[in-house]
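Board notes (copied after class):
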Amino acid sequence: MSWAARVGNIELAERLLTTSASSATAYSRTDNQLSAFMSSALAKYEDFLVKNVSTITSVESTLRSITWFLPGRFKDAELASEALSALLNVTNLYHDTLLAKIIQNDPKWKPILPLPLHTRYTRAWCNKDNIYKWVARALELIRFTQLLIEMGMRRKLSDKNRWRGIVFIEAVKITRRPLVSPPIPERDLDPASLPPSSIHSSPTLAPTPPPSSPPATPDHLKNNHVPLEPNSLMLTPPPPDRSDTSVEDYLLPKALTTSSVRPSLQLIHPFTSIKDWIAEVVYIIRPLIYVTVLRTNTHRDRALVTAFTLDLLSRSLRRAPSSSPSVEHDEYAARDRDLAWYLLRGSVWDLYTRPRLESLVEKTAQVPLLGLIGAVVKDWVPLIDEYYYYTAL
């Protein structure tokens, strides 16, 4: 090879290296610009959200109401309804996280009512353990989207693979924490009730400086020096036969309980016996056993009897909660109410609940308001037969 050819190859290699370096710089610059744009857009959205919380709450409620009327209106309407519902739930989860940050950044904010015990307990665990926080959020995302995922699997996969996917989802969900459902704090305040100092500051934007001077007195009140006349109701003495029971009835619900003063992480007593653990493990793995039996057997009654037996077994083995309000007491009460869902499963649904429900819908079809509700129920009835997660355990 001649000397000129070698020099040409060296120059070509230098050009390639320069071009690749400039391309890498351009890609890096594009990525930085994209990330900066996303951060700015997110910050602006959060700022818009906290300044219009009452409007956004009403919009969320309106869209959630629409999801009840979509099934049966057009082809794949139930898929659109569930996609909208899942999007709203995920958005609400993000909004709740944002509102929690706003409250934490405002040292002057105090709740009007005491926080629910469930909120105190789950928030304490989320603040203590990051792994718990992210696992709990992942489980909530699965709960919000599990029906939408099943609808997609029913349209794209065979029935056998669809049930495999449902079994996999239930296997992931057994990682939940005992005696806590849902595993993250729920929205425990009205966003419109936030004070102005909280509403006008976003967690991702620079905080708004406080006003330099107090608000001025309105002009129509500057010369108001005339005292108000006393009200006649304030001068009237109370009736002589009035007792103090009304005062006691008012103060008694506001009295502090042991749960009110107990540390947040100790609101649920740890299990002390193997019987307590067996009861809780049986309850947690019950949905996985139910879908496994339902997938491998053609008779739905066997799976229904198995799940109901496990429910009763867990209920008989669990420890008795305290009579005072507690996280454990509320959880057990919710589990007892969930037993009513068995009316929508298996032969109980086919032979008892569905015929009576359809008969009731037909009888109320001509009644103005009840007829509208009956039409909505009639559109939802076929979905209970087609999808597992409409009446899942």
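Comment from the instructor: The mean pLDDT is 77. The radius of gyration is 30 Å.
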